[in-house]
Write a structure and sequence with these properties.
- The protein has a single domain, classed as Pyruvate-ferredoxin Oxidoreductase, domain 3.
- It starts with 5 loop residues before the first strand and ends with a strand.
- Helix 2 links the parallel strand 6 and strand 7.
- It is globular and about 40 Å long.
- By secondary structure, the protein is an alpha/beta fold.
- The longest helix is centred in the last third of the chain and has 17 residues.
Amino acid sequence: MTKRGIFAPGAARRFATATRQKGLKRMAEMLEVRWHGRGGQGVKTASYLVAESALSLGKFVQAFPEFGPERAGAPVRAYTRVSDHPIRRHYPITNPDVVVIVDASLIGQVNMVEGMKQEGIVIVNTEDSPAEVRQRLGLKGGKVFTIPATKIALETIKRAIPNAPMLGAFVRATGILDIDAVKKDVHAKFSKRFRPDVVEGNLKALERAYEEVKSE
């Protein structure tokens, strides 16, 4: 892992042409994900976990954050790339396949879906319906997924850190990762830093979000 993030090799294989029912209809050879949230919500951690799980499948990956003022609550962006081939791009993602909005209060402050591909996916942490979010974003195409990630986090982890449930929603929405493999990666990473009850809470949050995410 470099200062900018993860730049790691894997076996070159083509992505499957189809994903799960509610995922992307077709994957490009490189998937680009842009994450929007606030400091303290675990945005960078979620972006890295996606990359690490894809790496375990033999993909080339890249993940790095982009910070504004380094304080809790300040807007944060992070980026994840997953590819069949070595990644030559080392700059922020401007045309994402997937946009993950970890804090819905950011909607309206900036254009969250700017540059998103027409067939792209948006995943939002909110208790609103996908139709309501689509209207707020002014989005005509693509797929919209919603999950009350903060609520799930409070009920399972007892803290308003929504990155684990957002990761579960991401796995279900895109279909590019296996939920059991992701749970294994999360357990391995979090077990080094947190108490067993906190690890278990994060796994429950991830699994709940995977099952409860809604789409339109």
